[in-house]
Amino acid sequence: MKLIKKLTLENDDLIIVWQDGKQSQLFSHWLRDHCQMPVSRNENNGQRLFSIIDIRKDLYIEEVTQDSEGNVCILFQPENHLSVFSQDWLRKNCYDLNNHFDDRSEKNKKLWQKNTFNDGVPKISYNYFHQNIEGKLQVLCSIRDMGFCIIKDAPTKEGQVLAVIKELGFTRETNYGKLFEVRTEVNPNNLAYTNMGLGSHTDNPYRDPVPTVQLLHCLESSTEGGDSVLVDGFNAAKILRQESSDNFLTLTKNWINFRFKDEETDLRSRVPMIEVNDNNEVIKVRYNNRSIDTINLPAVKIRSFYSAYRHWGEVIERDQLKITFQLLPGEIILFDNTRVMHARTAFSKKGKRHLQGAYADLDGLYSLLNILQSKQ
Amino acid sequence: MKLIKKLTLENDDLIIVWQDGKQSQLFSHWLRDHCQMPVSRNENNGQRLFSIIDIRKDLYIEEVTQDSEGNVCILFQPENHLSVFSQDWLRKNCYDLNNHFDDRSEKNKKLWQKNTFNDGVPKISYNYFHQNIEGKLQVLCSIRDMGFCIIKDAPTKEGQVLAVIKELGFTRETNYGKLFEVRTEVNPNNLAYTNMGLGSHTDNPYRDPVPTVQLLHCLESSTEGGDSVLVDGFNAAKILRQESSDNFLTLTKNWINFRFKDEETDLRSRVPMIEVNDNNEVIKVRYNNRSIDTINLPAVKIRSFYSAYRHWGEVIERDQLKITFQLLPGEIILFDNTRVMHARTAFSKKGKRHLQGAYADLDGLYSLLNILQSKQ
Fold it and tell me: Where are the alpha helices (DSSP H) in chain A?
């Protein structure tokens, strides 16, 4: 297909006028750096075979032509190097007509709140997930777009949560084990292992790198209470920013310490509660009142920090942001721990509540998602 | 011990004049938030039992006194809440006299270059590491402070690298497995599995979260070449900043995509090559010419990005920054993959070179380090 109307050179740029009237202006060094020839890229794995410092500083384009198939042939001097680009590659990769890839930014997520799920929280059946690529894709897309997914009717056998991770990616083992039991314990090292209610939080903010995916599998639930609560932390951050860009900025710019300590473990981090990328888009949130360590900021910033922190905590606890449901035996919730906060209501000492939890990471899940989508 | 000379109240601050003449001025809300009483903190695990929004907005300190043991007793109103702080806790935690904890920042590292190791690169014997807490501490401190450590005289048996991780933390399993073989392969999915030289790089910048620790264990080495090279990426970033603060800023402010793709895996990230914290201190670096994906930045930034990228690549490849050595059979190198870049020289097809590699994470290692240090 003919995509290009006209090619010209202007100083050290290649100007492309596209058939649809759009125009690109591409820097010679960028073109040379992205050379797709066998001498530049390994043919098996596509990896680049040279480094930025192998490109001559005095590089320039001597000539640009199109071959009989319409490929763009660029002759670089003084090294006398020929790069041939397909029109298609140039159109899909030129930096002035394409968005960069980003599967972590808030701008590529579907933000939600309570009334998004007025018709109930969607659940995917375990068999559909387990036996079908479409089922896996639904689970993965739900985690990427909504930040969570609930699988129902899974076997209520111990260790099931690890089997689910194995279908999607890899377990992140921590001091809590490959798998951890969430039930009432005597002398717990973590309040999660009591019957107390837990406010909305992300897990392990004291761990760097933080586990990016959490799973909770309900094996037994016969207590009063113990409901599960989820909050879209990216939506909470968006609301905070709308209500006070100063408070939002304060939380991105003033990092704090988190800490978890027991007999055998002493985990410490220094991280922001709201993390943004170079375009000021939210990519990670953290919130956990239980494990914030001593807040140590310059004295001059303490008051504004506490205003922002209170505002953030207040937004997170708004009812209209929360979805509340009972996780039933055989249900597994998977969520993006860099985005979705979870909570639980207190539960009775009568009856049993037994969940098994585990951590995994988004890289493995998104890799599988990319592969499955490319095969569709 | 008497640490405090005088206590006064000023608006919503507590003013402490310390015996050594220093002075603290602590915000009422910060004090209430850090209450150490059993009603505020779980006695077993120290976790905070309330949230920031449980603190009244109209909080104020009605009275401050010292009890017979010198503890500081603060009566908060209108909730009529008494917090008792030890003098020692206040001195060690007050935000105006203490530095925050940070084990990732460049400012808490010992930066190095080639001539730092004129007397040779230090190695710790496997038995000393394996059998002694002091040996483990040496390994862990070396990784924290220098970014790497070499263990010598380890058993040359397969899987040894995983046994070493087990003594320090947890393995990060990835698409490459729990353990990966570094040797020449037919049709490799990664250039690491050829006899090519590899320029200085960090591993897996296309993975988010990136593995923060890498281990390489030499089982066999009878080729010509195949030397190991290390570069302190934090030192390289410091030099870049000294030579051009503009170029440094460009790399922190313009994030790029990395990608790794084979038949079964498609890992994509969008991250900065130099990552700084809220105090503009370097906390992570990434560099890998092989796996940088299409560079997609606003057209107006492309030229300045390429200048900065070239400068960064050029600093990293300076001889005076590199230490070069042959990893011998039985030697295991452990390094902080968020700081130290590694490279290898090309090697002959004659002879055998077989390394086993694995990834782990800093959180587990630093936790053990904190625990072992606290017991000394």
Answer: 28-33, 87-93, 126-131, 133-146, 160-168, 233-243, 245-253, 302-316, 362-374
